[in-house]
Design goal:
This protein has helices at about 1-55, 60-90, 100-115, 135-150, 175-180, 200-210; strands at about 95-100, 120-125, 130, 155-160, 165-170, 215-220, 225-230. It is an alpha+beta fold and about 230 residues long. The chain folds into 2 domains: about 15-90; about 95-230, Heat Shock Protein 90, CATH 3.30.565.10. β6 and β7 form a beta hairpin.
Length: about 230
């Protein structure tokens, strides 16, 4: 009797799980097909913008082209993130060898369009690492975003890359020891009037733990925050 009950339970569970697995498989296939279809229009926009930019001399027209180019770059970012999400969910290896100093430069250039009133200083040496490039891009974006968000007065972000260590420093409101203990909590925020660290720094810590990156914070009230990412040498 007991064997019959267990067998029935297994069969019912399988009947419940099979449609879900099929649904997930269909969603993954749809995501891959959508990604493939997006590639052509993005490439077409980028190629034609480059051609148009060469032939236009009028300053107003060039500004319009630049605005379209920025929008195209943002669309490319979303494409890269979708591609990254599909690869991670299908357990594909997303690690690669790349120039960390170039990645930092690219992220700062991208973020300058979002934060035009922030002054960025970069002091970096050539550094090649083997890691998850797109995941690390999101990590850098989140750290800088938090630095800008809590820099109420002095809107400066200093970035240094040396000896496989990336330092990102802001001069904002800073944190005390109690706040530092909670910054990786998923929905923590230390100011109810602002979007919190929340999911952002929770994601940063998970990425670092998964990808063998040493993460450390140094902060004090009214003196800003320093974030360090230490990478493995190759």
């Amino acid at each position: 009797m007991l064997c019959f009950i267990i067998l029935s339970a297994v069969m019912i569970s399988k009947l419940a799980v099979d449609p879900l697995e099929e649904h997930i498989k269909n969603l993954r296939n749809l995501s891959k097909e959508t990604l493939h279809e997006l590639n052509l229009p993005i490439t077409t926009i980028t190629t034609n913008l480059q051609m148009l930019e060469k032939g236009i001399k009028d300053s107003k027209e060039l500004k319009r082209i630049q605005r379209i180019k920025k929008a195209s770059d943002m669309l490319q970012e979303r494409y890269n993130e979708l591609d990254y999400m599909i690869k991670t969910q299908t357990s594909q290896d997303v690690k690669e060898s790349f120039s960390l100093d170039k990645l930092v430069d690219d992220r700062v250039e991208f973020l300058k369009h979002i934060y035009p009133d922030v002054k960025f200083t970069i002091n970096s040496e050539k550094t090649t690492i083997f890691n998850d490039r797109i995941g690390l891009s999101k990590v850098i974006d989140n750290i800088i975003d938090n630095g800008v968000k809590y820099s109420t007065n002095k809107k400066i972000i200093d970035i240094e890359l040396k000896n496989y260590e990336l330092r990102i420093v802001d001069y904002g409101k800073g944190m005390d020891e109690v706040e530092i203990l909670h910054i990786f909590d998923r929905y923590y925020q230390n100011n109810s009037n602002m979007k919190g660290f929340g999911i952002g720094l929770n994601m940063v810590k998970r990425f670092c733990d998964t990808n063998n990156v040493e993460l450390s914070f140094k902060s004090s009230p009214n003196n800003g925050t320093e974030v360090k990412l230490k990478f493995k040498e190759i």
